[in-house]
Amino acid sequence: MATRREFLWAGGLALAGLAAAWADPPLAGARLGRVPAGSAGRVVEIRMRSDALGSRVWFDPVGLRIAPGTTVRWVLEANVHSTTAYHPTNGSWASRIPPGADPWDSGMMTRPGQTFERRFDVPGVYDYFCIPHEMAGMVGRIVVLAEGASGTGLSEPGPASGPLRAPSDAALAALPSIESIVRNGSVRAPDPGR
Amino acid sequence: MRKRTSFTLAALAALAFAVPALAQPQAPAAPFQPVSALVDLPDFIPGMGSLYVDPATLPAGPFLAYDREGHLVSTIYMVPLAAMTEHQNFDGLAVGDGEVDHVDIQYNAGHPGVAEPHYHVVLWYVSPEAAAALQ
Q1: Do B55 and A9 count as a contact with CB atoms less than 8 A apart?
Q2: Of A61, A30, A57, nearest to A140 (Cα)?
Q3: Which residues contact A189 (CB under 8 A, 6 or more apart)?
Q4: Structural domains in chain B?
Q5: Which fold is adopted by the domain A32-187?
């Protein structure tokens, strides 16, 4: 007997209703790929997106640089998604967040407009994924870096070892480089309509 | 024995047989269960309808989809890409009771329960226009 989590649901999801207007506007730059200076203590948004058939799914932006103390708000736009840190507490994944940082897992988000927030205080590189879409490459990367810092010394998370799981090939291929995030402030996924 | 993939429509039609207790309009009887009762999903999914499945038939299904009036609108099978590349067979799949109007074969990036890329094979019993109106 399948467990609740193991259970299938038919997911061509046309849960295409867009999120409601932003009652508490986030940093405008978050939409366009830039986080302005002075963002510490502010909120930036990452959209959890999908096409109508559920064929293409992605975080938007997929890469984001923020200052320590910034809160990230994930907003479910369509389909069913999660935002889940690569960490042993989230399903035996090898950690891909900084030592000393707390992992997070939104659980399954099912209602368009639903949000999940998490404040980032520890500098470093955070890789996360969507539980049902990890193998499809729906991942994101957040670089927490003090304003004005160059990012020198930041490095890609190391490979998994022992029984801990590594990201799928599709996930690794979809992660933007740390350098591109530091340079651009944020990185958007390739046009899914290509 | 060499495995082969059998996903052609002809094969599906040849292998399918009627699911009992699908009198319309009403939900299918046990062992079918509403998907919405098993996961945190709406009772009605726009573009698809209200879905039912017998858990013993996972992952392929069939899933039976109903419109808001309780009429069967489609039978859906889900085939992971990994199953295809491994040349797995899915023989003797059941099918809903109705005359097939058209078939959609659609890629899906994954969803709870099938957290991997896969294909939906959808046998529609209604026109494309009626399918699009499932909102």
Answers
A1: no
A2: A61
A3: A58, A59, A60, A61, A62, A174
A4: 9-132 (3.30.200.270)
A5: Immunoglobulin-like (2.60.40)
Q: pLDDT of chain B along its 135 residues, tens only?
A: 334 434 443 333 333 444 443 444 677 889 999 988 877 667 888 888 998 999 888 888 899 999 999 999 999 999 999 999 999 999 999 999 999 999 999 999 988 767 899 999 999 999 999 999 998
Residue B67, Cα to own-chain centre: how many angstroms? 14
| Beta-carbon separation of B39 and A56 below 8 A | no
Q: Is the CB of B114 less than 8 angstroms away from the CB of A8? A: yes
Q: In what order do the strands lie in the sheet with B102-108?
A: B33-34, B50-53, B63-66, B72-80, B118-124, B102-108
Q: How far, in Å, CA of A165 to CA of B93, rounded?
A: 34
Query: How much is the ipTM here?
Result: 0.70
**Best residue in B33, B41, B107 to probe A by mutation, most A CBs within 10 Å?**
B41
Q: Given CA atoms A90, B115, A107, B31 in this order, what sign does their dihedral have?
A: negative
Give which of A3, A6, A7, A8 to mutate to test B binding, by max B Cβ within 10 Å.
Answer: A8
Nearest to A54 among B42, B76, B108 (CB): B108
Phi/psi region, residue A57 (left: phi>0; alpha: psi -120 to 50; beta: rest), is beta
**Whether the model pTM is above 0.90:** no
